[in-house]
Specification:
YXWGXW repeat-containing protein, two-stranded antiparallel ribbon, YXWGXW_rpt, alpha+beta, signal
Amino acid sequence: MRPLATLRFVLLAPLALAAFVSTPTFAQPEIIIQQAPPPPRMEMVPVERPGYAWDRGHWRWEGRGYAWVPGHWQPVMRNARWRPGHWEAHGPNWYWREGHWSR
């Protein structure tokens, strides 16, 4: 190998390996509960706000029970649609699916 190619390999190899083992900083642990969430609360949806999408309120697991998280505005992501977070039942377990933007 030529010296420049060797140097390039030595510098880039650790970066390439780090890309395979790194975890995104936004990754959150999966929440699995065996107690169904209460029915959603009725919430007044505010008047439309340009540049924002309404993220409706939801129940969040607090370790021993559910706590209500009120709705809030999400800044709009261009050419994307807001998919609100929700609880999904799979057998006796309930899984939280985080809200996200989809294209």
